[in-house]
Write a structure and sequence with these properties.
Length: 123
């Protein structure tokens, strides 16, 4: 029920957190629930991107986005996490995965945000 009340951005943040968590536990031999420093940095970066996303609640999935605000050194590790954790999410978090799949069908906004709205993404 809680899942239904979450906003689109909250769901995206939760999905990213869970995917990075799954990836980290498997690849970086974490014995605890906490992330390794590298994955921690990736999650913080992802949360910052979401918080400053110029599309707000109309945000498309980042894969469909025309802005591509991820700086290149974070884009590759994030892609790797998504590729590995994506198919596994259905077993670990089926409801969230279903919602995420539905979100993927959202149309990407045709209007690209103006440069001034992208200034917050410069960090
Ligand atoms: S600007 Fe695009 S790539 Fe950046 S968070 Fe928003 S949707 Fe994702
Ligand atoms: Zn890790």
């Amino acid at each position: 029920m809680r899942l239904l009340k979450q906003t689109h951005l909250q769901r995206e943040a939760k999905t990213a957190e869970l995917m990075i968590g799954l990836y980290c536990q498997h690849h970086h031999n974490q014995q605890t629930d906490s992330l390794c420093p590298g994955c921690c940095e990736l999650l913080e970066f992802s949360n910052r991107r979401l918080a400053y996303c110029p599309f707000g609640e109309d945000k498309p999935t980042c894969a469909k986005c025309q802005v591509h605000c991820y700086k290149s050194q974070m884009r590759q590790p994030m892609r790797q996490v998504m590729r590995w954790a994506g198919p596994r999410m259905i077993w670990h978090h089926p409801w969230l995965t279903l919602r995420h799949l539905l979100d993927k069908f959202r149309k990407a906004p045709s209007k690209v945000p103006k440069k001034k709205d992208l200034k917050n993404l410069d960090h």
